[in-house]
Every structure is written in C-alpha cells, then in structure tokens.
Amino acid sequence: MTTINETNNGMKKIQIFDTTLRDGEQSPGASIDPERKIIIARQLGKLGIDVIEPGFAISSPGEFAAIQQISRELQHVEIAGFARAMKVDIDAAVKATQDAARRRLHLFISSSDIHLLHQLNKTRKEVVQIAREMIAYGKQFVEEIEFSAMDSTRSDRDFVVELVEAAIAEGATIINLPDTLGYAMPDEIEDLFRSVRRQARGGETVRYSTHCHNDLGMAAANSLAAIRAGATQVEVTVNGVGERAGNCSLEEIAMIIETRKSALQMETRIQQSEIYETSRMVSRAMHYPIAYNKPIVGRNAFQHESGIHQDGLLKNRNTYEIMDPEAMGIPRSMIVLGRHSGRHAIKHRLSEYGIAVEGEELVNVYNRFKQVADEKKLVTDNELIRIAGEMTDTQPDPYMLSDLQVLSGSHKSRIATVTIRENEAGTEHSYTGTGDGPLEAVIHCIQQAIPVAAEFEDLEIHSLSTGEDAHGEAVVTIVNNGERYRGTSIHSDIVYAAAQAYVAACNQAMLTINKLANEESVI
C-alpha cells in the first residue's frame, strides 16, 4: 500500500506547485494579459504540474476572470487561490476558484520581526490571532488550506513554531516555510523544516511545502534541502522568473530530480517533452529573454565549442552530456562552431546538409573556417556552408538574399521589395510584399520566392556592439513538416539580418530535405 507521497515503485512523490502566473508575474515588466494566462495554464497542465496558482484574484477584474476561466478548464489540476490573511482577499480567491474540480486556499502572513515592525506594524500576538481567525474563516469554504509564514528563514524559530502550531490547530493542511528573500543556506533550510515538524504540535499531521527565491543563487539547492527534511511539495516558476532574482526554476528542480532519481529516490509527474515549449511560451509572453547559460533551457545549455568535447560527443553523447535535450523537446544542436572547433565537427556538420568534404578539401575548408572564426568568434551553419562552397568551387546554398528595401511609415502598412538569387539557375527575381511591420513585409516577400519558406516560428535579436556602427545578431527558427531549422545572421541593419537568417533557415531545410531524398533514392 502506498501513501499520498509515495509512488508504486516506492519513490517519494514530489508535488510541483507552479506559481509562474502569480509570483512569476511579479517580475518587473513581466505582466501577462488574461488571455495569455489561460494559454500558459493549459500548457502547464500538459507539462504535468500538480498545482497551479493562477494569480491574485483581488488584484483586478481581469485577473479574477482569468483565474475563474483556468479553474473551469483545468479540471485535472489542483488550483490554488492566493490571498493575504484578509477576508476580502479570501472571498475573492474562493469565488474565483469555485468551479475548480480540486482547489485549495493559499493564505500568507509575515512572520519575521523585520516585517512585523516595518510593514505590518503588528505584534507577534496580533499576527497569531489574525492567522487563526483567517484560517478558520477560509476553512468554511475549502478543505485544503496552505498557510505560508512569509520570510520564515529570517524569523525567530520559536515564533515560527508558534505560528505554525496555531495554523494547524485552525485547520491548515499544508505548511509552507518560504525563503522569501533567498537568504538561507541549505543546512539552515533543512534545520528549519526538521525543527518545525518536530516541535509544532500536530506538525507531523500536515504536509510541507518549500518556496525559495534565488537572490543568492541557491533556490534549487535550498528546495532540495527542504525536501530532504520532509517537504513533499516544491513551489516553482517557469524559467525561474519572479521578483528580484526570481524563484526556484521549474525546469531545474524537475531535471535535478529526474537526472539523479536513483540517488534521491524521488520523482515528479513532469512530462519532460513539454519543458522546452513551456519555457519558450513563458519567455515570449513575458518578453523576458532567457540567459544563454541558463541551465536546461538556455541557448548554451547543450552546446559545445571545444574540439575535444565535440569529438567526444560525436563518438558518444554521454561523454559530455548528462541529460538528453531532445527528450525535453529541445532541438538537437549540441555543436557550436567556433575557433576551438576541430575538423571532426566541421566535417560532421557539413555532412548533415549532404555536403561531403575529404582530404585536401577538408583542410582548405577548415583553414578558411579558422580565419572566419577568429574574426567572428562563432560561425553559423549558413556561413560554414558558404565557406564550403568557396573552398570547393560549388554553391551549396539554394538561395541567397541579394537586396532588400523597406518603405516604413507611422500609420500605413510597411512595403518591402526583396531580390532573391536562385544559385543553381543563376537567376535573380524581385518580389514585393506588405505587412504591419517591416519584418512581416520582408517575410511575405521571401515566402513568394522559396518553395519551402516555412512557418516563421521565432526570432531572437541580440546586440553585439554599441555606437553608430553597432551590429545585431538575428536568430530565426522556422518549422517545416514538424522539423525546426535555425538560421543566424549578423548585420548593422537588424531587419536585413533577420531576413538573411530566415533565408539561411530555409536553405538548411532544403539541404536537409534534398539529403534525405538522395538517401532514399540510394536505398
């Protein structure tokens, strides 16, 4: 027989409580409109989240409506209604979540003397009384009540025990001891949870949750420490978004548990294949870029430039990777071509596009590649294909952007004219298109020219320098027949760079399609 926190294989079940739509949205400038909240909530359901905290119902009518819609739609996920220890908040949270199949009320009040003195202007006795009254009030409406003693890690330990004891006595079923300022060390978190569980009357009769912020970069480590001390729920946000340095990252804690499952003897319900899509969706909705070196979902998380690493990866992925990016829905692009790359990586990358180079040709391509890499640091796939064409006297790229002009204005649609060269035929043709923005107009032109000009899925723009001669890097992702292709370009005109990157991605799609067709004809 298994308990609620134990799976059939005997592993400890860790519930994932996602607060991206509440705490995560409190990031400066990261507000999400109600319609997008609903879309993200649906994706969180697909991801396998156990509990979703969709917002702060009292904050606005739009927020209330979004929470209400999410509660109605996501019948397979528990919904948490967030509220301060105030009747007006509780009423709003209860009403917004009333259509949820499973729900809880999440009440909080501060426990640190710093907050009591400077924020609440209350005594400890008054705070305990408020907690008692509001939990008892909330218990009229819901069975599950999660109580958070805010700023627990900077609070007097005896007072935290007293406050938790009072909460349990009034009917709280889940106790959350938040590291609100990301201040604690892992051993301190572990000791806090063990002490409260042991010392508070009724402490062993309730579940425990951990909510860690990342101000000192220890949110994931502190969350694991709380789990070791008995917590069975961890509160997270997608991409680690949140106030200041953010919250414990959902993808990080999920993959720590998954990757070290046998050592930790824990598991979650998270569906790995949905991690990358969820990360991208939240990044786009919040207009928050993901750091290149962000664990799991960052651009560099599964990329290698060192020739030694590249050689090992091409022989066996496990030499330099502990996780499978494709299992998380991350497109396979493990090798980044730069000044530290070796011949093996160059040859392998070109072979992926059906371009074979051997012997002296490979030496010539490699030497030219190194010259370009010294100038640009990183060499994109389209640049490598162009180098191969120059050194082997061929023209692998099916298409090339020859010219681009855009007419912009403050009120009218943008008009673009694009000239595309078809390299095999040696011909050039010009196309005209319109769009609400200059890039949309340009893409409409290119789609007329290239047969596989597929769905424009994503655009990343990065500034590479400053001043009047500043250059920008554009990274474009397209989707063709369910496969993703990425093109990159650097130019002082960012619209031109994006257009070049789009053409490069289309070229990669065509080269890959042609390669597969040739392989099938040989078979």
Automatic annotation (TrEMBL):
It is an enzyme of class 2 (transferase). Signal peptide: none annotated. Its EC number is 2.3.3.13. Keywords: Amino-acid biosynthesis, Branched-chain amino acid biosynthesis, Leucine biosynthesis, Manganese, Metal-binding, Transferase. SMART domains: LeuA_dimer. Residues 14-276 form the Pyruvate carboxyltransferase domain. The keyword Cell membrane does not apply. The keyword Manganese applies. Pathway: Amino-acid biosynthesis; L-leucine biosynthesis; L-leucine from 3-methyl-2-oxobutanoate: step 1/4. It comes from the Bacteria. GO terms for biological process: L-leucine biosynthetic process. InterPro entries: 2-IPM_HCS-like (IPR050073), 2-isopropylmalate_synth_dimer (IPR013709), AIPM/Hcit_synth_CS (IPR002034), Aldolase_TIM (IPR013785), LeuA/HCS_post-cat (IPR054691), LeuA_allosteric_dom_sf (IPR036230), LeuA_bact_synth (IPR005671), PYR_CT (IPR000891). GO terms for molecular function: 2-isopropylmalate synthase activity; metal ion binding. Belongs to the alpha-IPM synthase/homocitrate synthase family. LeuA type 1 subfamily. This is 2-isopropylmalate synthase.
